[in-house]
C-alpha cells in the first residue's frame, strides 16, 4: 500500500465513521505528517493497524538510540488512527510502554502494530508492538482511550 493511497483510504474510512462533524477533523493529523508516518496496513474489520516510522537523527538520544518519548509518540500515532475507526471521538488516557531493546539509530525505520483488545463502557483498550526492520520486538505497549 503506497503512502498516498493508504492515507486516502484511511481518510475515507474515518469520514464514514464520523459522517457528522467531519469538517472539524484535521486529517492527516499534523503530528502524523511531521513524524513522516506511513500506513502499511489498515484492517478496520479486525481492528488492527500497522504504521511505519522513520528513525531520524533528530529523534536520537545521546547514546544513539531513539528517545523513549519519540517511541511513545510513534505508538500514540498508530493507535490514534485506529481509535478513530473503532469508536466515537476518544483520546489517550493512559499509556504504558515496556522497552525491551533500544531502537537503534542505525535502523531506517520502525513499525508499530496496534490492535483493539477490548471495549468496555467508555473505555477502549489497545495493545501495540514496536518492531525493528527485521521484525524483532523492541517495545510493547498497552493503552486505554476514553470516549468523550
In words, what does this structure look like?
The termini are far apart. The radius of gyration is 15 Å and the shape is globular. The chain has a single domain (3-147), classed as Hotdog Thioesterase (Thiol Ester Dehydrase, Chain A). 26% of the residues lie in helices and 37% in strands. The chain contains three helices and six strands. The chain has a six-stranded antiparallel sheet.
CATH class: Alpha Beta
Poorly predicted ranges: none
CATH superfamily: Hotdog Thioesterase
The structural domain count equals: 1
What CATH architecture do you see? Roll
Biggest sheet descriptor = 6 strands, antiparallel
What structural category characterises the helix and strand content? Answer: alpha+beta
Helix content: 25-40%
Mean pLDDT: 95
Count of individual helical segments: 3
Spatial order of the strands in the main sheet? 1-2-4-5-6-3
Q: Which fold name is given in CATH as the topology?
A: Thiol Ester Dehydrase, Chain A
**How many DSSP-defined strands?**
6
Distance between the termini: 32 Å
Rg, nearest Å: 15 Å
Break the fold down into its secondary structure elements and pairings:
Layout: H1 3-17, H2 30-34, E1 38-43, E2 48-54, H3 68-86, E3 90-99, E4 109-120, E5 123-131, E6 137-147
Antiparallel strand pairs: 1-2, 2-4, 3-6, 4-5, 5-6
Please give a handful of descriptors for the protein shown:
148 residues; alpha+beta; Thiol Ester Dehydrase, Chain A; six-stranded antiparallel beta sheet; 3 helices; 6 strands; globular
Compose a concise summary of this entry.
This protein is of the alpha+beta class.
Amino acid at each position: 500500500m503506497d503512502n498516498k493511497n493508504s492515507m486516502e483510504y484511511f481518510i475515507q474510512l474515518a469520514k464514514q465513521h464520523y459522517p457528522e462533524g467531519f469538517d472539524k477533523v484535521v486529517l492527516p493529523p499534523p503530528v502524523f505528517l511531521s513524524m513522516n508516518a506511513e500506513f502499511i496496513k489498515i484492517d478496520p474489520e479486525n481492528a488492527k493497524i500497522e504504521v511505519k516510522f522513520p528513525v531520524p537523527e533528530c529523534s536520537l538520544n545521546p547514546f544513539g538510540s531513539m528517545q523513549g518519548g519519540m517511541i511513545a509518540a510513534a505508538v500514540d500515532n498508530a493507535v490514534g488512527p485506529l481509535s478513530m475507526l473503532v469508536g466515537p471521538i476518544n483520546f489517550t488516557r493512559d499509556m504504558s510502554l515496556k522497552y525491551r531493546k533500544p531502537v537503534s539509530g542505525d535502523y531506517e525505520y520502525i513499525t508499530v502494530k496496534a490492535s483493539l483488545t477490548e471495549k468496555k463502557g467508555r473505555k477502549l483498550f489497545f495493545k501495540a508492538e514496536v518492531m525493528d526492520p527485521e521484525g524483532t520486538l523492541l517495545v510493547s505497549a498497552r493503552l486505554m482511550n476514553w470516549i468523550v
